[in-house]
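A.,

Following up on our hallway conversation. Structure tokens first:
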């Protein structure tokens, strides 16, 4: 059957119109007519919609995975509304490339220990490269269905991440999970499906947003493909949604974050990495076509040939560059034009995914999450170069996080961000980096739009200093006259978490975050004698992980 391209939104390469400096996306409001949310859950589907009330499926068909219908177990134990619930992200490779749980014994013991420690739930990445790995539209949810059932049996909630990105640095990485093989073949056939920098280096962590609405994936657009994936997930796990699977986080870019791959994700995951300026990712043909069209429509065609000049090398001092220095061209008419276009396309990509996700999961009882990157390198400079190349138009004179908070608040989503565990004092002296400054600004933007937050740690060091910093950062969201709900996700579970020195520290941290009443409620629900078996449970985990 031929793919049905969604009528809203139209191509991002359409003419931006006469008014360039408009509200919100001054450029992109003219490039695309944003659809309203009063739409069917089939809005971005590549299949025709069956007749039903308001276009919604009244009785979704069974999943194409061919498995049995899944049913939820008993609901998780009751929790107090007070305190900060703690989630733990499971290992990225908990489900192998073949679609099955890698070490079932270790996972059973781990979930038992987490439950006894008072953890609210687990975060599980549903990798596109595993579920739809071989052929388009053929989904294998088997290993993930087993994990959700296991979490349910241990009274743990599940936050499901729709992971449309690559994991790991390459085939030698034990956590290597590429994009689906059929997608990589399409990328080999058409390299411009991948992002490109000024040197022509391709990044295959995530499909370029320049082709969001183009039928480049076997007749489907990337947005249609992501939507079909989420729809299959919804239909497969419908009996768990709102009961066990209480949250869904939609991946919007590299590492699941709404950003450009300005530098490899593996570097961003290492807080000790030297700060980089990053590279603008606007050199694939679709991005260039959009830039050219926008430049021509404001009568400045010479601005549409590529990204800024004078950005220099990745690790160079920003003050030694002509674009990023304090009085550099980032603040010129050209700089404002380019950065507005670059960040505006990213916001439009995020809005399209917000609309698709909220439509698909409407009335399922799950909360929808989206994540932004914690990029704090060069935060104390005037131009904030590392944020600019990632797509966040945040400078000394412009708040780049208010538009993001406004976008997610519009669709009643929850904002996820990292850096809750890092202090400014840990940064390289003279680097002008500030994780605490970045987090304060982001929390302020969230409070301005009454946007709930979910925090994460950037490193995996389980020392008292890092955990105390998480507690301190968590208080930011409830400071002052405004207050928003908050949860915390510890990234991620490994054998070090269950080390005899680390586990008592972690369980104490969970109690401090959740507060004594929440923790006591869970003990009363499960029985006090089970809590006292926590130590033996962690010993079982340690033994199991020896073969992981």
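Then the amino acids I'd put at each of the 548 positions:
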């Amino acid at each position: 059957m031929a793919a049905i391209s969604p009528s809203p939104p139209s191509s991002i390469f359409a003419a931006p119109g006469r008014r360039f400096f408009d509200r919100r996306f001054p450029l992109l409001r003219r490039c695309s007519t944003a659809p309203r949310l009063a739409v069917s859950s089939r809005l971005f589907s590549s299949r025709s919609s069956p007749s039903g009330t308001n276009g919604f499926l009244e009785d979704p068909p069974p999943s194409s995975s061919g498995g049995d219908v899944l049913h939820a177990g008993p609901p998780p134990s009751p929790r107090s509304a007070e305190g900060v619930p703690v989630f733990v992200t499971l290992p990225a490779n908990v489900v192998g490339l073949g679609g099955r749980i890698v070490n079932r014994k270790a996972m059973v013991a781990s979930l038992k220990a987490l439950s006894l420690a008072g953890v609210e739930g687990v975060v599980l990445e549903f990798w596109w490269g595993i579920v739809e790995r071989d052929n388009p539209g053929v989904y294998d949810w088997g290993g993930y269905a087993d994990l959700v059932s296991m979490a349910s049996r241990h009274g743990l909630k599940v936050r499901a991440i729709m992971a449309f990105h690559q994991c790991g640095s390459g085939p030698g990485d034990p956590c290597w999970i590429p994009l689906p093989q059929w997608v990589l073949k399409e990328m080999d056939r058409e390299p411009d499906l991948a992002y490109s920098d000024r040197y022509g280096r391709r990044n295959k962590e995530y499909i370029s947003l320049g082709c969001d609405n183009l039928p480049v994936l076997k007749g489907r657009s990337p947005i249609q493909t992501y939507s079909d994936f989420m729809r299959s997930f919804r239909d497969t796990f419908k009996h768990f949604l709102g009961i066990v699977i209480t949250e869904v986080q939609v991946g919007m870019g590299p590492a699941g974050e709404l950003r450009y791959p300005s530098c490899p994700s593996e570097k961003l995951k290492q807080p000790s990495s030297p700060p980089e300026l990053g590279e603008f990712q606007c050199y694939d043909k679709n991005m260039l076509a959009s830039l050219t069209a926008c430049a021509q429509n404001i009568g400045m065609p010479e601005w549409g040939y590529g990204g800024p000049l004078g950005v220099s090398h990745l690790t160079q001092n920003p003050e030694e560059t002509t674009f990023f220095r304090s009085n550099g061209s980032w603040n010129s008419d050209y700089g404002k034009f380019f950065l507005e276009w670059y960040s505006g396309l990213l916001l439009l990509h995020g809005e399209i995914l917000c609309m698709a996700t909220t439509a698909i999961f409407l009335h399922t009882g799950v909360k929808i999450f989206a994540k932004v990157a914690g990029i704090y390198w060069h935060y104390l400079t005037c131009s904030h170069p590392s944020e600019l190349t990632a797509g966040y138009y945040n400078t000394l004179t412009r708040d780049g996080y208010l538009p993001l908070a406004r976008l997610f608040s519009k669709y009643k989503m929850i904002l996820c961000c990292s850096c809750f565990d890092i202090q400014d004092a840990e940064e390289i002296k003279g680097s002008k980096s500030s994780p605490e400054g970045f987090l304060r600004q982001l929390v302020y933007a969230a409070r301005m739009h009454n946007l709930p937050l979910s925090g994460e740690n950037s490193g995996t060091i389980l020392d008292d200093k890092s955990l105390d910093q998480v507690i301190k950062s968590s208080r930011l969201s409830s400071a002052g006259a405004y207050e928003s709900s908050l949860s915390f996700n510890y990234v991620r579970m490994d054998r070090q978490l269950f080390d005899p020195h680390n586990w008592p520290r972690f369980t104490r941290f969970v109690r401090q975050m959740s507060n004594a009443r929440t923790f006591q409620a869970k003990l009363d629900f499960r029985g006090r004698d089970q809590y006292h078996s926590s130590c033996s449970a962690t010993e079982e985990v340690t033994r199991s992980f020896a073969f992981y």
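Confidence is low (pLDDT under 50) at residues 1-43, 48-69, 516-532. Curious whether your intuition agrees with the design.

B.
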